[in-house]
Write a structure and sequence with these properties.
The chain is mostly helical. It folds into two domains: about 40-180; about 185-310. Helix content is about 40%, strand content about 5%. It has helices at about 1-25, 35, 45-55, 55-60, 105-115, 130, 135-145, 170-180, 195-205, 210, 255-260, 275-280, 285-300, and strands at about 80, 85, 230, 240. The strands form two sheets. It has a two-stranded antiparallel ribbon with strand order 1-2. A hairpin with a 6-residue loop joins strand 3 (about 230) and strand 4. The longest helix has 24 residues, at about 1-25. The chain starts with a helix and ends in a 16-residue tail after the last helix.
């Protein structure tokens, strides 16, 4: 039976080595000194632009808030997904229940690396997989603007996740597959500056791909089907294809920009569903920003719809 003892011993050694490797590979990784040096002092006026491009109020304002109450970022919205229910936290300036005690470095690590001040992984329901493409200086600007917003007491409820999704450490392995600061769409040399600017807004702070791109079994976006539309994370609805192979095929850049500003489509329909809040945020941007987003969307390679065809309703 000596061979059996050796086999069991080898299995234990290999298992231990695998567990150790997994532990090391899944470790949270924070920004290095070179990246932190790029943060700069921050400009609140520029940060307001990033705030609305990033749609912070859509998830972190109290559900149903209107007007100035949308700037009270107390959290609490329930995002029900196949992985469980995620609840965006309080990110107001309250030092206990919100992020009022965070440094600019803390915010940068959260948005660019998905790592909390205590060194834990954030779940990617917080769209840092897109924010990772932002410039550190933009994070500093956002931090400066957030400092102008009110402190609101009250801690949002915890996430409700089952095994194995409640094990945060595993997110480190997910990040190795899906977290990148590189652009999704490669643009040829000589591409208009406007398109390049739009790419930054859409792929980074705007995080449009988080909803408009289909996902694989692990919840990562399928970059080969970028912005091709997807089954909604919540419910059974469809998030539309916004490439020129889908719903935007017959829209001009001017019509896309107008839709982002007014909420009206070229055929005089109006924005609906979850896009209502997104469009409200887009209306806060400058005309130049909306034009840049439109130019980029028309430059994205066309794709067929990234979701199953819908069956016609029964008569």
């Amino acid at each position: 039976m000596a061979w059996l003892k050796k086999l069991v011993g080898a299995a234990l050694i290999l298992g231990g080595a695998g567990a150790a490797a997994g532990w090391l590979l899944s470790a949270p990784v924070k920004l290095d000194a070179a990246a932190l040096a790029q943060l700069g002092p921050g400009d609140a006026t520029k940060g307001k632009r990033i705030f609305y491009a990033g749609g912070c109020t859509s998830c972190h304002a109290k559900p149903g808030s209107q007007g100035d109450a949308r700037l009270q970022l107390v959290g609490g919205l329930q995002l029900k997904t196949p992985f469980g229910t995620f609840v965006p936290p309080n990110i107001s300036q309250d030092p206990k229940d919100g992020i009022g005690a965070w440094s600019v470095e803390d915010l940068a690590n959260a948005m660019l690396k998905g790592v909390s001040p205590s060194g834990e992984h954030f779940y990617p329901a917080f769209p840092y997989a897109s924010y990772a493409r932002m410039k550190p200086s933009g994070i500093a600007d956002l931090y400066a603007f957030l400092k102008t917003l009110p402190a609101v007491a009250g801690k949002a409820p915890a996430n409700s996740l089952g095994f194995p999704f409640n094990i945060r450490r595993g997110i480190g392995l997910w990040k190795r597959l899906y977290l990148s600061d590189q652009p999704v769409v490669a643009l040829a040399g000589g591409t208009r500056d406007q398109v390049v600017a739009g790419r930054y807004l859409v792929e980074g702070p705007g995080h449009c791909g988080e909803c408009h791109t289909p996902r694989d079994f692990a919840g990562g976006t399928k970059k080969s089907e970028w912005l091709a539309g997807a089954v909604a994370a919540e419910g059974s609805g469809i998030v539309p294809n916004i490439t020129s192979g889908g719903g935007l095929a017959n829209w001009s850049e001017a019509e896309i920009a107008n839709y982002l500003e007014t909420g009206f489509t070229p055929d005089f329909d109006s924005v609906g569903g979850a896009m209502v809040d997104v469009q409200r945020n887009m209306a806060e941007l400058t005309p130049e920003d909306r034009a840049a987003i439109a130019a980029y969307l028309k430059a994205v390679p066309p794709h067929p719809n990234g979701y199953p065809a819908r069956k016609p309703a029964a008569n």
